[in-house]
């Protein structure tokens, strides 16, 4: 549905002939003042209404009627189709999200990989701070902004600049991603810090990062999703 609407809007903006023809068609009495978009959504609307109508008929049917079993089977079948439709909508939204994100990722010198992969979906994302040590003598610790995208099979760590993401590292999830609690107070770190270990990063070597979230709830959320198998 969303792609149909996007295509119609694109055609209306780019093709005057299409816009003229569409207005002429929509003005026909047979359309009953309905727009093309309303006709595009009709199949799904009718399906949901059909389920409601069938349920209403069942309620008004005598319990010992021969029609009861057929009505119950019909309701089950309609519910199954509706479930498939909902799953299809979620899948298309997930694919669209991956396509949009792939256009915003800049791998630079980091080993690139395809983002749009069948079965992949985004689990969690958001900004964090990474501990950075400057200089070798009298080292001074500071935090730099990073951005994490966690998918059901992949973790991407990047730096965000405006609306683009420059990839710094990535690892297979959950096999090569591990998190550990830190004694932040003893180490002089922010209270919402934790250790992120990549047993195999994009270079093929293990690496570790100390990350800090902006709130305690953010830390709990990240610790939970990074510790889970999806």
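^ Assign residues to that structure.
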């Amino acid at each position: 549905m969303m792609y149909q609407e996007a295509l119609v809007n694109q055609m209306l903006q780019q093709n005057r002939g299409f816009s003229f023809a569409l207005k002429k068609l929509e003005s026909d009495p047979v359309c009953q003042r309905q727009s093309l978009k309303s006709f595009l959504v009709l199949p799904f609307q009718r399906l949901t209404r059909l389920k409601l109508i069938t349920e209403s008929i069942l309620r008004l049917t005598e319990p010992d009627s021969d029609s009861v079993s057929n009505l119950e089977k019909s309701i089950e079948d309609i519910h199954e189709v509706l479930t498939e439709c909902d799953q299809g909508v979620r899948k298309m939204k997930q694919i669209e999200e991956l396509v949009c994100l792939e256009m915003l990722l800049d791998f630079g010198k980091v080993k690139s990989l395809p983002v749009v992969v069948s079965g992949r979906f985004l689990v969690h994302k958001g900004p964090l701070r990474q501990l950075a040590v400057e200089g070798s003598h009298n080292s001074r610790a500071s935090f730099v902004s990073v951005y994490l995208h966690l998918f059901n099979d992949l973790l991407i760590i990047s730096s965000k600049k405006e609306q683009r993401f420059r990839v710094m590292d990535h690892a297979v999830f959950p096999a090569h991603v591990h998190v550990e609690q830190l004694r932040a107070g003893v180490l002089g770190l922010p209270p919402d810090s934790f250790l992120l270990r990549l047993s195999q990063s994009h270079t093929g070597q293990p690496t570790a990062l100390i990350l800090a979230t902006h709130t305690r709830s953010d830390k709990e959320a990240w610790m939970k999703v990074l510790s889970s198998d999806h």
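The chain has two domains: 2-103, 114-226.
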